[in-house]
Amino acid sequence: MGNHIGGERPDATVSQEAGADGDGAVTVHRDDAVLRLTLDRPSHRNALTQLMIRALVDALTEAAADDSLRAVHLQGAGDDFCAGVDLVGANSRRRPRTGDLTRRIPHAAHRVIELVSTIHLPVVCSVQGRAVGFGCNLALAADFTVAAADAVFWEPFVERGFSPDSGSTWLAPRLVGLARARRMLLLGEKVSGIDAAEWGLIHQVVGAPELSGAAGKLLDRLSHGPTVAIGLAKQALGFGQHATLSQSLNQELFNLELSCRTDDFKEGMEAFRQRRPPEFNGR
């Protein structure tokens, strides 16, 4: 089943049509309870245009309110995941006015990172080839990123003459510590898929031919899990990154109160009593 963001074509899978100038697209496909978002601009290593970023914001915003969804999958078409935001293409048509970045980006690229990090659905990201700049941070913001061994994670901001953005200075040090974050963000060191897994930057590394299967197995597990409890656990993990222990304990208590009122909690307890695997329905 497909979905056309903002349209009336339930059988479509493309959220925006690729224009003659190579604007690219984000393909939005519904696979049972999994929403699959594919960055579809392989001729430009899936570098994101403003239209593609807007499509991601729209798709993730709609997904956050869809009770029938239980997981989100992010992937790139072709040989690469994402080469970042296409700044050259964006600035070639007109000269931005002063204050353009501070006016626009919080509602565009930054909003995508926030949605991936805070949506109450588990987000799995598949990375092949390059994950650069915003593409790298999109992968780091996901709950689980599975990468091919020959994938490359790269934060080239300083090498281009400007400071890091899209959450890189928040995400990287929390995942790999300050020393390695400095290597990525101040020296612009490229990190292979193998090193990324060893560092704890991502969830798993596999051979390129196994990438689809590994991501699919993880998505299947998550999409059959207790969706409300997973969402509340994800929320508590994010909250705990800037809270005291006492504050986190209180947050966990409120979340526990909510999760104990779900059908999945009742099923989990009944399955435990009957010594059988639970069959969660996401409710």
Automatic annotation (TrEMBL):
Q: Where is this region: Disordered?
A: 1-25
Gene3D superfamilies attached to this UniProt entry: 2-enoyl-CoA Hydratase, Chain A, domain 1, Lyase 2-enoyl-coa Hydratase, Chain A, domain 2
- Give the Basic and acidic residues compositional bias ranges: 1-11
Q: What GO terms are given for molecular function?
A: catalytic activity
UniProt-listed CDD domains: crotonase-like
Which family is this sequence assigned to? Belongs to the enoyl-CoA hydratase/isomerase family.
Q: What is this protein called?
A: Enoyl-CoA hydratase
Tell me the organism's taxonomic lineage.
Bacteria, Bacillati, Actinomycetota, Actinomycetes, Mycobacteriales
